[in-house]
Amino acid sequence: MLCWDAVMDGPVRVLVVDDQPNIVDMLVTVLGFHGFAVSTAGTAAEALRRAAADRPDLVVLDVMLPDGEGFDVCRDLRAAGHELGIVFLTARDAPRDTVTGLTYGGDDYVTKPFAVDELLARIRAVLRRIRPVGDGPPLPGVLRFADLELDEGAVQVRRAGTLVALSPTEFKLLRYLMANPGRVLSRAQILEAVWDYDFGSASNVVDTYVGYLRRKLDRYGPPLIATRRGFGYALREAGSDASW
């Protein structure tokens, strides 16, 4: 059993949001056994209150709640600036629902019925994106490209000296682009590197998150993320190659 307290900065707090007591009880038991500190909520309103009070590292979020949808909770959490992991847990398994969850700011999407081991693996993958545990080669402390600076240790991004607020997934996407400056990265490569999961037909999630990044970064300078039609995306300075 992996003891997350030993490899991460303090106890890992997980908020379970679901209105089915049997699922809540099972997740509290399983996550608690694996070393997570677990709190629970049964409604959308309660989820927002608990997230504000407990500041969890990750939320396991049901989509269908008595007073609203988990998608809306996710959107509200992101709008409030909560930089936490969000794993949707739902019986809705249509591809459009997966895409909706991810484009609202979710980090992963698990359908019911689910295998506990799979859910734990997904949770750990999201946590690695948010708070790396050192299971791979160390990355540079600071990545720079043009007037863009990404500080790994502080988990901060600055453009032209101005702090840019990013979600955990946006941060990892930008880090991947900055680690490969000028290289055209396909959607499949980005999905594997950033999401640690093959979403198949949901690859337009990449387009959505690139759009998020562009809107945030372009507020402070010329565009830095270029599209190579039919191939993918690359981090490059505007005007550096007229053939694009």
Automatic annotation (TrEMBL):
Residue ranges annotated for the OmpR/PhoB-type domain, each copy included: 161-235
Molecular functions per Gene Ontology: phosphorelay response regulator activity; transcription cis-regulatory region binding
Record-level GO BP terms: regulation of DNA-templated transcription
Keywords: DNA-binding, Phosphoprotein, Transcription, Transcription regulation, Two-component regulatory system
A single GO cellular-component term on record: cytosol
Domain Response regulatory: 12-123
Keyword S-adenosyl-L-methionine among UniProt keywords: no
UniProt key word Glycosyltransferase: no
Protein name listed in UniProt: DNA-binding response regulator
Source species of the chain: Virgisporangium aliadipatigenens
Lineage of source species: Bacteria, Bacillati, Actinomycetota, Actinomycetes, Micromonosporales
